[in-house]
Amino acid sequence: RLWHLSETGSQITQLATLAGHTGSVLTLQADDTTLVTGSSDATVCVWDLATCTVRRRLQHADAVLSLRFSDKWLVTASKDRMLHVWRRDCDYAHAFALPGHAVAINAISLHGDMLVSASGDRTIKLWDLGSRTCVHTLDEHTRGVATLDFDGVHIVSGSSDRSIRIWNALTGVCERTIANAHADLVRTVAFSRAMDVVVSGSYDETIKVWSFSTGALIHKFRNVHTSRVFKLMFDRTRIVSCSHDRSVSIIDFAADLPRARHTTAMADSAVSRRHTVVPRSIDENGGALQSFLNEKPSPSGYTNMP
Predict the structure, then answer these.
(1) pLDDT value at residue 275
(2) Residue 41, Ramachandran bin (φ over 0: left; ψ between -120 and 50: alpha; else beta)
């Protein structure tokens, strides 16, 4: 489903419903003209948003768990343990595949020609798409890695070991570990060095804000969701999240965060302003959520999280 969020955040309007997959939509990304979706049916659909029709359909051998695109590349990751790289500037022609993970690839992030992938095999790999090589393998998580974010210099990852780790992508060194960040699997992370924050969501139903530079807990949001948090994104004013409770919530980030910074590091606050959308269903990969900020759990999602 496509939604429009007003600039003030006071109105949310459904624009369209797109039907093209035969399984759950597990991952997606959109720009002004194109939507790309990946599904448990092992396909990737490239949509024309002007006509709401499928332009291209791409294939994996198993469920597609994550995808990211740039002007040049589309990269798709699957439960089949493969990364496939497609050329957006050549009408999505298949360029090459990157084998290397032992089990399902749960999350990827793309920055220029640098790709980061996270797997249930407990590793994170940094790839150079230009040379088609693996630059670093990061292996300090003790259980499967469920999520990551990457800005070209740093990687932030979340795991079934309940920790959040901050890595230097240039050296491959783990610079900071937030142990026991949540009481359950850390399912989604996003960060901004400019804002000095990491935002995380977990199967423990909470959303937390951390200092990127120190790892200290800045704020904990309660009563946002009543079940597992699957995906979140944020900017300077809002956090958008989706959950197994079938809701998409928009938190007034600007209203609560400054107060939290000036109180205890263990602040536990209710949400001061929140809007909720209730789609028909939301899958475990947060497939119903593509950023409003301009940008029942499925067995096909996370079966390899030792």
Answers:
(1) 52
(2) alpha
